[in-house]
Amino acid sequence: MRHFLTLRDFTRDELREMIDLAIKIKAQTKAGEYVPYLKNQTLAMIFEKSSTRTRVSFETGIYQLGGTGLFLSSRDIQLGRGEPMKDTARVISRMVDMVMIRTFEQSKLEEFARYSRVPVINGLTDSYHPVQLMTDYLTMLEFGKSDPVVAYVGDGNNMAHSWLYLAAIMGFELRLATPKGYECDPAVVLEAERLAEKYGGKLIFGYDPVGAVQNADVVTTDTWVSMGQEEEKEKRIRDFAGFMVDKKLMSHAKPDAIFLHCLPAYRGYEVSEEVFEEHAEAIFTEAENRLHAQKGIMVWLDEHRDDNGESATC
Ligand code: CP
Ligand code: NVA
């Protein structure tokens, strides 16, 4: 049995298989053909943080695959009152077929997975957002950017970390520009560099947005204030001055460059209203692709279950 906790848990071929499944199932869905790949299966979706896209795409996705989604906010289940993650995992995974979790520390997700009898999917942690990056890869392919130079301008956060793993494993060039003090986690950088060496990706780190965006095929960013960082908002807004993706910055990218954003976007901060609206087609295709990319991931995980489904720790 395999869990989808970070992109580095998979080889390039495996990630590509998930993307190919996503492409196939997207075409079937668009043709009105809802193939019940996960008939009668239940996906539990545990949320310790807010969500629009992740909730709607997983719930709709499992339904369109012939199954059912269970939305479990930590405010409503005993997890929120202190029931341990490992007990929650041992209970829920005896009743459902797959689990998606959005939480804070990556270690909490990993603990759940250790005790789970069924595949677990990372729906965002403080460290990674891998389902979003599978979506972004699918979107880049659809927009003809199969071997892109990508510029990520902004916070060295969960999105930046997952971009590092994606570029390293899929083998494309990623240039990161962060403000000083907001660099990526050095342990993630080290691991990404090891993967880049193995697969042929190119990772470039710096502090200059213009240098990063120069002739890029894809420009992307993320909020300066991630969930859980609300108290740092004012300081962050000051520290990120000069890092907004606006028309002037985009003018350094290739003329046919696309701009991607995982959303929610905060116009006037990490992106200007003008750039956002000019690239709305790519951005909202990216949002829709959450539905399709995650179907590919869920079907792939289902196809790779252990025969007996037993977890070593249970
Ligand atoms: N991009 C993303 O994960 O959006 P939500 O927080 O709305 O799920
Ligand atoms: N970095 C953001 C991503 C939101 C989808 C956050 O963690 O809040």
What is the strand and helix layout of this fold?
Elements: H1 12-30, E1 42-47, H2 53-64, E2 68-73, H3 85-92, E3 98-102, H4 106-115, E4 120-122, H5 130-142, E5 149-153, H6 158-170, E6 173-177, H7 186-199, E7 202-206, H8 209-213, E8 218-221, H9 233-239, H10 247-250, E9 258-261, H11 273-278, H12 280-303
Parallel strand pairs: 1-2, 1-3, 3-4, 5-6, 5-8, 6-7, 8-9
Helix pairs in contact: 1-12, 2-12, 3-4, 5-6, 5-12, 6-7
The structure holds phosphoric acid mono(formamide)ester and norvaline (NVA).
Brief summary of the model shown:
This protein has helices at 12-30, 53-64, 85-92, 106-115, 130-142, 158-170, 186-199, 209-213, 233-239, 247-250, 273-278, 280-303, and strands at residues 42-47, 68-73, 98-102, 120-122, 149-153, 173-177, 202-206, 218-221, 258-261. With 314 residues, the chain is an alpha/beta fold.
